[in-house]
Design brief:
The protein is α+β, with helices and mostly antiparallel strands. It is built from 3 helices and 4 strands. Strand 2 and strand 3 form a beta hairpin. The radius of gyration is 13 Å and the shape is globular.
Length: about 90
């Protein structure tokens, strides 16, 4: 992943991640478990269902320490089975 995060942000910083995935009770748990490995902390996800209830959107504020750390979070969250998009 080749991004310009290091030119746009001053690290460490708080970054809001939005994760969209299949509406399943396990989705928030899977996301938090992944974050505990790569960015340990106390997270309180905000979960919003889609209009049809097929998908859920999860918003989380995460402290990222570097460009590489941020890229790792995007990659690892996107690998989760229930996740469709990470913004």
């Amino acid at each position: 992943m080749d991004t310009n995060f290091d030119q746009l942000l001053d690290f460490p910083c708080q970054q809001t991640f939005k994760i969209m995935g299949i509406a399943h009770e396990r989705l928030p748990e899977d996301v938090i478990s992944c974050l505990q490995i790569h960015a340990p902390g106390d997270y309180v996800p905000k979960v919003k269902p889609s209009s049809k209830g097929t998908y859920h959107s999860i918003s989380l504020s995460i402290t990222v320490t570097s460009k590489a750390h941020m890229e790792t979070l995007y990659i690892e969250l996107a690998k989760l089975e229930l996740v469709k998009v990470v913004l």
